[in-house]
Amino acid sequence: MLSAAAPDLAGVRPARLSPNLLLWLLVAVSALTLVTPAEILATIDHLSVRDTDDAMRLAEVRDLVMGQGWFDNTQYRFVPPEGVPSHWSRLVDAPMAALLLLLTPLAGQALALGLTAAFWPLVLLALYAVVLHRGVRRDFGPQTAILAIAAALQTFGLTLQFAPGRVDHHNVQLFAMLGLALCVIRGGGRAGIVAGLVTALSLAVGLEALPFIAVGALFLMIDWVRRGRERLPAFLGFGACLAVAAPLLYALQTAPHLWPVAACDALSPPWLWLAVGGGLTALTCAATDRRLATPRARLAFAGMLGSLVVAGFVAFYPACLGGPFTGMPRLVKEKWLDTVNEMISLRSFVAQQRWEIFAFYPSLLVASVVATVRALRGAPEHRRYFAVAALFLWPGLAIGIGQFRGTYIPMGILPLVAAPVFARAIALAAPSAIPPARRLGAAALALSLISIVWTLPFHAAALLRPLEMEDRAGTALRCLTPEAVTPLADLPPGTVLALIRMGPAILLHTPHAIVAAPYHRAISGLVAGIEGLGGSEADLRRHVGARGITYLVACPGQPALDLGPEKAFATRLAEGEAPPAWLEPLDVPGTFLKVWRVR
User: Fold this and answer.
1) pLDDT digit string (tens) for 57-70?
2) Distance separating alpha carbons of residues 383 and 388, to the nearest angstrom
3) Quick one: which of 76, 227, 280, 463 could link to 231 by a disulfide (CB 3.0–4.6 Å)?
4) What is the DSSP track for 164-214?
5) Residue 4: pLDDT band by 50, 70, 90 thresholds?
6) What is the pTM of this model?
7) What are the CB-based long-range contacts (under 8 Å, 24+) for 340-348?
8) Regarding beta strands 495-497 and 583-586, do their DSSP bridges make them parallel or antiparallel, or are they unpaired?
């Protein structure tokens, strides 16, 4: 009876996983191993964040939730009593504040802030992956779209911006610029409108993406110049939507009495002039399109209007031609700005033997070259796709050679190029008559677009010289950790003078006020940090008296830059020199920092 009921399995093949399912499994493994549980728990439990800007952003969000006004973005514990007005966008604060308000009744404010810091960047990464998948799928199909997500998760410069605790605005801008690039690739009126919206959002959040916005706008304009009415909807939709959305977002996040005030470091009248002027240019071109019968006529007309917009900017806002750091004293530029990581050049990184840069520049260069070649010689139906990718990659690489922060946004564009290369390498790897050399070449090209591959020799070096590598990293970061700073909260509230990079961590983890922090709008605080900690006893005492400083905090092993030929007085104190009578040494349990109270 049993044998009669048994099914006939002859000829039945075992089930096979589809290639797409295998790729999704690869993506899942990459996502689950992207960060360790320890990193997430450290962010949740201790507010351990990666950067000074992340700490300052969390302090800003917490102040907003605790009742500080929407239009009042002054940090009053920074250079008290007047405080320092931030140029950061409330549009980035808002979703985190909403998440914090939602979680606080369930977990308490401290834990809710940690949960917000840990998971908000991961939410943004998920949104980025959805947009990336949809954009690549439209041009290359579902398998290549999955490979795009896999490539993104292996791009160190990209995942770094979405790591737990990375609540700064760069990830929002990166997300917006991916949206702009995909809209420019797609074309059409609807895509143009979305492009205008994400561009306005990017401008409201910060001005770092201006070169990429200019590239996208020029591409849409030249596309109309070449093809005429067929390509007008995208150009018109982008310009008109940007001209409307940028002023609305500006008004939404800026106090009315500040609307006419020009600022070179944030969205304000100078940049609204360009946004609205560009929109009016697109509208005027659309209105006269029928009369402009040739590409030459369209180019001359658009060029004339664009020149008027630029000329007005130069005439009315000449100070902004020098960038966002106008009026910065030479001392602050040399001793602070030129030492900030995101402002350092490739040459300086090499001179300092900071080989972590290999996770950025080589893969960007390969992606730029591949995109250019495919735009010029690839399949006709994909040339626009690669042309737009190349136009976003090359400016970022060029800017990044001079200032490291130029690499941030193109790292978000790199997966657009990597995914088709991966797909081709997989296709050539299948049994076929393709010569082995060609297969190996395709595989090597694919590997060269994975940024972490370029760092493998330096990881090997770190294994051979672990103490040296670990000591270098530890010295640079240990004084910014919650473990170092949080014990200071046990002291009665006062005003602290510490290393410039320590300022945001002190704001986040203690009730104290600070004098120095790495922000260009607080020049007086930066001068106090540089001269007070890097100069003589007289320099330190002068700034202590001028700023009403209560505590002096020094980081052993990470002294301030000496201003003169002699070792700075604060550094000598940190190394054990007896303090003068006007400084009282304090024993703060739980921290290795050196602390003195001003008598």
Assistant:
1) 999 999 999 999 99
2) 9
3) 227
4) TT--STHHHHHHHHHHHHHHHHH-SHHHHHHHHHHHHHHHHH-STTHHHHH
5) very low
6) 0.92
7) 340/518, 341/404, 342/403, 342/404, 342/405, 342/408, 343/403, 343/404, 343/405, 344/403, 344/404, 345/401, 345/402, 345/403, 345/404, 346/400, 346/401, 346/402, 346/404
8) unpaired
